[in-house]
Amino acid sequence: MGSNIKDLDPLSEIKALAEIITSSIADIETSLKDTGRTYPSPHIAHSRPESESGRNILEVQIAGAKIVAAASQLIATVRPPPLTMIANALQYHLSTAIRIAIVTHTVEILRDAGPKGKHVQEIAKPTNVDPTKLARVLRLLATNHIFVEVSPDVFANNRLSSVLDTGKNWEIIVNQPADQKYEGGIAFAALLEHFIDEGFKSSSALVETILPSEDGLSKTPYKTAFNRAFKTDSPFFDWVEHKEQKLRLTRFAAGFAGGSTVAASDTILDGFAWTSYPEGSIVVDVGGGVGSQSLAIAKAHPQLSLIVQDRAPVTLEGIKLWKQELPGHLESGRALFESHDFFDRQPPRKVSVFLLRMILHDWPTEDCVKILKHLRAAADNSTRLLIVDNIISYACHETQTKDICGALRLPPQKPLLPNLGQTSVLKYYADLNMMTLLDGQERTVLQLNELLERCSWKLIEVSYGDSFSVSQSKAIAVPM
Ligand SMILES: C[S@@+](CC[C@H](N)C(=O)[O-])C[C@H]1O[C@@H](n2cnc3c(N)ncnc32)[C@H](O)[C@@H]1O
């Protein structure tokens, strides 16, 4: 497990893990007492972000990160190994069960019933699914702490299941076309549906895609596992815009626009010196989508001028959003949307900050080189490049990046994994999602450093974000 494993006999290792859990719980208790906040109950709906305020205290987060790392390591240590491997190999049923709960609108149907729940006959009726099969699906979820089986075949929501709630009335959802489910609602489940539909189906084709073709010489006809699974030559982002993929496009857009914010606790505003830029400094948000990040920057730092670049149809959506959210910035020219392909040269102008958020991970390294070289050509000595992505750590100690500010982290307590194992696992899932769908990749600091150097950018600072954060790591580079 941890690289320090040889120092501990097995029982001492188990005790050390248990001790990490006990002392972390004591830390949580102290922080809650000091701040007068309470810990969120696993039995109560996750309906408002404020209800997470106890868990969001920095010290509570750090303690929670240790508990997740230690508890999962403890399970991996004590359960008979073949059973752990079988349970790991069968995880796909859990993904499927989550999607079934979403498409049957189970969470919305159960919302009003509260803790007493509803019989599965009632839950199954609106979507006309077989109640006995739905009960088995929900029981697997309840066994994983998602929903509660209150009495045989009677299920109720709990905090985990309630994360899937759109907040909409189930009778409205059932009578709407499927692509309208997330309209006017919370779209977190849309993100999960994208993972479990396009992502999961593609993942099942990764084995055949990664292996060399049978003769060992000819190239595989499919570039990505996604291409193989969906029998298409189109890159994912083109395919999802095909007419017949309307439901998937709507769901994907909803999931990424609104859904991802439910999970993020730190933001674009943290970890970068936005206030150091004077009136009129230009920030170019490259591949900025509808400008949701730029919107947060503009609201917090009104002295900045924001230019959001993306593909033409996306910029039109962005203008609509900004007209609602911050019309004054568009009218005064303080913010503008620019249709621009990031594989083309940047328009000449003085840019203070180029922002690349969740862009580089979408692309293979050679394409990232093209994007970064165009930005470098448009930069002057004072330009900063801010990259926001998942920066992943090796699962072992690494010291080669010690000269980059923030890159090295203190090793966690023995015998935890250096990357805290399950605590940071979402970043590694994201990496495989990138591989599967796009031939993209999440990068380590070493890989990012090498990539930037090839494009004459120098990586000067890294911050990883909160313990549980995803897509919130930041890297700052300057021209070489
Ligand atoms: C994962 S989204 C990130 C959006 C935004 N940066 C954010 O963090 O919310 C990737 C974005 O890249 C845009 N994109 C893809 N190919 C592009 C290209 N060749 N030129 C400009 N933008 C592109 C997509 O339209 C999409 O908005």
TrEMBL record:
> Which residues are in the O-methyltransferase C-terminal domain?
225-403
Instruction: Enumerate the PROSITE patterns for this protein.
Output: SAM_OMT_II
List keywords of the entry alphabetically.
Answer: Methyltransferase, S-adenosyl-L-methionine, Transferase
- Supply the Pfam families for this chain: Methyltransf_2
* GO-annotated molecular function: O-methyltransferase activity
Q: Where is this region: Disordered?
A: 33-52
Q: Which InterPro entries match?
A: COMT-like, COMT_C, SAM-dependent_MTases_sf, WH-like_DNA-bd_sf, WH_DNA-bd_sf
Q: Where are the transmembrane segments?
A: none
**GO biological process entries:** methylation
Please give the name of this protein. S-adenosyl-L-methionine-dependent methyltransferase
Name the source organism: Mycena belliarum
Lineage of the organism: Eukaryota, Fungi, Dikarya, Basidiomycota, Agaricomycotina
